[in-house]
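Entry 14. Ran structure prediction on the chain below.
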Amino acid sequence: MTTNGAPPMSLEAHAVIAATLAEGPGSVVEVLTSVGFTEKQWNAATLYWMSKLAEDAQLHGAGAQLAIEYSTYFARAQGDLAPVVPMTPEEWARLTVDVQKEGSTGEPLARRNLSLPDYLRLLRDFTRRLSTDAEEQQRFFATYQQLQPATQPESGLVTR
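Output, C-alpha coordinates:
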Protein backbone atom coordinates (compact mmCIF):
# COMPACT_ATOMS: atom_id res chain seq x y z
CA MET A 1 0.00 0.00 0.00
CA THR A 2 1.22 3.53 -0.62
CA THR A 3 2.14 5.73 2.32
CA ASN A 4 -0.89 8.00 1.93
CA GLY A 5 -3.34 5.08 2.10
CA ALA A 6 -4.26 5.21 -1.59
CA PRO A 7 -4.38 1.90 -3.44
CA PRO A 8 -1.40 1.02 -5.66
CA MET A 9 -3.88 0.55 -8.54
CA SER A 10 -7.58 0.97 -9.13
CA LEU A 11 -10.10 -1.76 -8.39
CA GLU A 12 -10.74 -2.10 -12.12
CA ALA A 13 -7.02 -2.40 -12.93
CA HIS A 14 -6.64 -5.09 -10.28
CA ALA A 15 -9.61 -7.06 -11.63
CA VAL A 16 -8.35 -6.80 -15.23
CA ILE A 17 -4.88 -8.01 -14.23
CA ALA A 18 -6.39 -10.83 -12.15
CA ALA A 19 -8.47 -11.92 -15.15
CA THR A 20 -5.39 -11.83 -17.38
CA LEU A 21 -3.49 -13.96 -14.87
CA ALA A 22 -6.43 -16.38 -14.65
CA GLU A 23 -6.32 -16.93 -18.39
CA GLY A 24 -2.66 -17.94 -18.07
CA PRO A 25 -1.15 -16.62 -21.31
CA GLY A 26 2.04 -15.58 -19.49
CA SER A 27 3.83 -15.71 -16.18
CA VAL A 28 2.92 -13.36 -13.35
CA VAL A 29 6.07 -11.33 -14.00
CA GLU A 30 5.37 -11.11 -17.75
CA VAL A 31 1.78 -10.01 -17.24
CA LEU A 32 2.65 -7.45 -14.57
CA THR A 33 5.58 -6.06 -16.57
CA SER A 34 3.34 -5.69 -19.63
CA VAL A 35 1.02 -3.38 -17.65
CA GLY A 36 3.77 -1.50 -15.81
CA PHE A 37 3.54 -3.04 -12.33
CA THR A 38 5.97 -4.98 -10.19
CA GLU A 39 5.20 -8.04 -8.09
CA LYS A 40 5.59 -5.89 -4.98
CA GLN A 41 2.96 -3.44 -6.28
CA TRP A 42 0.68 -6.33 -7.27
CA ASN A 43 0.96 -7.93 -3.84
CA ALA A 44 0.29 -4.59 -2.13
CA ALA A 45 -2.71 -3.94 -4.38
CA THR A 46 -4.05 -7.45 -3.78
CA LEU A 47 -3.75 -7.04 -0.01
CA TYR A 48 -5.39 -3.61 -0.21
CA TRP A 49 -8.34 -4.62 -2.41
CA MET A 50 -9.02 -7.97 -0.75
CA SER A 51 -9.09 -6.15 2.60
CA LYS A 52 -11.51 -3.58 1.16
CA LEU A 53 -13.74 -6.34 -0.26
CA ALA A 54 -13.81 -8.10 3.13
CA GLU A 55 -14.48 -4.83 4.94
CA ASP A 56 -17.36 -3.97 2.60
CA ALA A 57 -18.88 -7.43 3.07
CA GLN A 58 -18.52 -7.23 6.84
CA LEU A 59 -20.04 -3.75 7.04
CA HIS A 60 -22.85 -4.19 4.52
CA GLY A 61 -23.55 -7.93 4.35
CA ALA A 62 -25.89 -8.71 1.46
CA GLY A 63 -25.85 -5.03 0.51
CA ALA A 64 -22.10 -5.01 -0.16
CA GLN A 65 -21.32 -3.62 -3.60
CA LEU A 66 -17.53 -3.73 -3.94
CA ALA A 67 -17.40 -7.46 -4.71
CA ILE A 68 -20.12 -7.02 -7.35
CA GLU A 69 -18.16 -4.17 -8.92
CA TYR A 70 -14.95 -6.24 -8.86
CA SER A 71 -16.60 -9.30 -10.38
CA THR A 72 -18.16 -7.16 -13.10
CA TYR A 73 -14.74 -5.79 -14.08
CA PHE A 74 -13.21 -9.28 -13.87
CA ALA A 75 -15.94 -10.89 -15.98
CA ARG A 76 -15.76 -8.18 -18.63
CA ALA A 77 -11.96 -8.49 -18.87
CA GLN A 78 -12.11 -12.27 -18.94
CA GLY A 79 -14.73 -12.17 -21.67
CA ASP A 80 -12.51 -9.85 -23.72
CA LEU A 81 -9.56 -12.24 -23.39
CA ALA A 82 -11.26 -15.37 -24.71
CA PRO A 83 -14.59 -16.30 -26.25
CA VAL A 84 -17.25 -18.45 -24.63
CA VAL A 85 -16.79 -22.09 -25.63
CA PRO A 86 -19.68 -23.15 -27.89
CA MET A 87 -22.04 -25.44 -25.97
CA THR A 88 -25.64 -26.50 -26.37
CA PRO A 89 -28.13 -26.40 -23.49
CA GLU A 90 -28.04 -30.22 -23.45
CA GLU A 91 -24.24 -30.25 -23.11
CA TRP A 92 -24.46 -27.64 -20.34
CA ALA A 93 -27.02 -29.81 -18.51
CA ARG A 94 -24.68 -32.82 -18.74
CA LEU A 95 -21.75 -30.76 -17.45
CA THR A 96 -23.89 -29.36 -14.63
CA VAL A 97 -24.95 -32.85 -13.52
CA ASP A 98 -21.37 -34.14 -13.76
CA VAL A 99 -20.14 -31.28 -11.55
CA GLN A 100 -22.90 -32.02 -9.04
CA LYS A 101 -22.06 -35.75 -8.99
CA GLU A 102 -18.31 -35.15 -8.66
CA GLY A 103 -18.70 -32.40 -6.09
CA SER A 104 -16.18 -30.26 -7.97
CA THR A 105 -15.41 -28.96 -11.43
CA GLY A 106 -11.99 -30.64 -11.81
CA GLU A 107 -12.73 -33.97 -13.49
CA PRO A 108 -15.82 -32.91 -15.46
CA LEU A 109 -13.87 -30.01 -16.98
CA ALA A 110 -10.77 -32.12 -17.63
CA ARG A 111 -12.85 -34.75 -19.48
CA ARG A 112 -14.10 -31.97 -21.76
CA ASN A 113 -10.71 -30.26 -22.10
CA LEU A 114 -12.11 -27.10 -20.46
CA SER A 115 -10.41 -24.75 -18.01
CA LEU A 116 -11.93 -23.09 -14.97
CA PRO A 117 -12.01 -19.74 -16.84
CA ASP A 118 -13.92 -21.53 -19.65
CA TYR A 119 -16.38 -22.79 -17.05
CA LEU A 120 -16.85 -19.34 -15.53
CA ARG A 121 -17.56 -17.84 -18.97
CA LEU A 122 -20.03 -20.66 -19.68
CA LEU A 123 -21.70 -20.15 -16.31
CA ARG A 124 -22.23 -16.44 -17.00
CA ASP A 125 -23.38 -17.18 -20.56
CA PHE A 126 -25.89 -19.86 -19.56
CA THR A 127 -27.18 -17.78 -16.65
CA ARG A 128 -28.08 -15.11 -19.20
CA ARG A 129 -29.30 -17.54 -21.88
CA LEU A 130 -31.49 -19.66 -19.63
CA SER A 131 -33.07 -16.62 -18.03
CA THR A 132 -33.95 -14.99 -21.36
CA ASP A 133 -34.55 -17.83 -23.84
CA ALA A 134 -37.51 -20.09 -22.99
CA GLU A 135 -36.64 -22.67 -25.68
CA GLU A 136 -33.06 -23.08 -24.42
CA GLN A 137 -34.34 -23.22 -20.84
CA GLN A 138 -36.74 -26.02 -21.78
CA ARG A 139 -33.97 -27.97 -23.56
CA PHE A 140 -31.64 -27.60 -20.58
CA PHE A 141 -34.20 -28.71 -17.99
CA ALA A 142 -35.46 -31.64 -20.09
CA THR A 143 -31.91 -33.02 -20.29
CA TYR A 144 -31.14 -32.13 -16.68
CA GLN A 145 -34.21 -34.01 -15.43
CA GLN A 146 -33.45 -37.06 -17.60
CA LEU A 147 -30.02 -37.27 -15.97
CA GLN A 148 -31.38 -37.28 -12.41
CA PRO A 149 -31.43 -40.65 -10.65
CA ALA A 150 -34.82 -42.31 -10.34
CA THR A 151 -36.22 -41.94 -6.84
CA GLN A 152 -37.40 -44.96 -4.92
CA PRO A 153 -40.17 -44.93 -2.32
CA GLU A 154 -38.68 -44.63 1.18
CA SER A 155 -40.04 -48.02 2.24
CA GLY A 156 -38.10 -49.71 -0.53
CA LEU A 157 -41.31 -51.38 -1.73
CA VAL A 158 -42.40 -51.00 -5.30
CA THR A 159 -45.74 -49.26 -5.46
CA ARG A 160 -48.22 -49.40 -8.31
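The radius of gyration is 21 Å. Will compare against last week's run tomorrow.
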